[in-house]
Amino acid sequence: MARTIQLDSVNKEYQSTGTAHVAVDDLSLTIPEGSFTTLVGPSGCGKTTTLRMIAGLETPTSGRISFGDEEVTDQSPQDRNCAMVFQSIALYPHMTVSENIGYGLRVQGVPKDERTRRIKEAAETLQITEQLEKMPSELSGGQQQRVALGSAFVQDPDVLLLDEPMSDLDAKLKAELRVEVQRLHQELDATVVYVTHDQTEAMTMSDHIILLNNGRLEQFAPPGELFDRPVSEYVARFIGTPSTNLLTATVAERDGEYVLAGEGYTIPASADHFATRVGDSVTVGIRPQYLSSESGEHQLTVIAEVVEQLGTEFVVHGRTPDGDNIDVVSPTLGDVGQGDELTIGFDVDDVFVFDSDGQTICYGDELTTDPIHQSP
User: Fold this and answer.
1) Handedness of CA 7, 159, 198, 52 (dihedral sign)
2) CATH number of 242-366: 1.10.10.10, 3.30.950.30, 1.10.490.10, 2.40.50.140?
3) How far is CA 363 from CA 162, 233, 273, in A?
4) Which of 76, 83, 166, 198 could staple 157 via S-S, CB 3.0–4.6 A?
5) pLDDT tens digit string along 131-159?
6) Reported CATH class of domain 5-231
7) Whole-number Cα distances in Å, 203 to 27, 207, 210, 226, 272
8) Edge-to-edge strand list for the sheet holding 5-16
9) What is the model's pLDDT at position 376?
10) Cis peptide before 242 (omega within 30 of 0)
């Protein structure tokens, strides 16, 4: 039965040559019951350490971990009804696929008839029924990963933990297994926590995303919220491909009104957010997908440097005249060449504004109460 997972002020420190290294720093959050939640972030940010603490393979230096109403901080992994699939595909080479899938059930003392039934169900779900009598060495990488998933799935866990299970697979197999894992989640009565460094996996598979930065929680929200309402410049740049464009601007007051003045553009701004920031440098973030060569309230000049074709869309990598890197995603820019000067438009509702510390000041729909924005 799926359960909520709650972390209360969880810390994990490691000692190395007399120096404390903080892997997870004061992490507090509640993962909803039955959800598919992804831990994402760059290497070394604390993703796998957090997962291992949930599994019971690591003990927090301080803080509490609970499944539902039950505290499990000091419980052994065997007592948590928690299954885990590791990055390395750990199959017993001398056992058949069927024996590998059912090994955990055999250790638990589940009767043979029940084991056979559950192994068959898992194999059908993962589309490996024809592989049950084969040895792991006879399988492809994708089939081996399905067997590893089956060995976890067949245990009917309350919590299923997946530690970068697709990192060693090619792009085609990753795409196939993303679908398989989501189907698996739909059939399981379990809370799934998935670790990846790939933000595309996180965005496409998850109900919620936990984005970590140097062991600390940066944002915990549904994928759409991280994309449209990032709480920091770090979130805006990490989530989304290509990354969010960042343009420098200065807060100014002109004739009693506040504006964000950048190279070639001026955006009206509200007194509520900017009256005390006149003269400050801020950063304006705009996602490449929200820039257009055909429309927009405000315009930028972009000098094209590289053009990539991605199916029906083109990605133009360029620079503004003052040297800011800028990317534009559009289906209409296929004829752009290196050195071409483009006029690119954007709407104020689509921007983010960050302070000098990289924290979000406001989003585009909060910049001004004036329903009509006109460039000076």
Assistant:
1) positive
2) 2.40.50.140
3) 34, 12, 10
4) 83
5) 999 999 998 888 888 898 888 888 889 99
6) alpha beta
7) 21, 9, 11, 9, 33
8) 19-31, 5-16, 62-67, 70-71
9) 40
10) yes
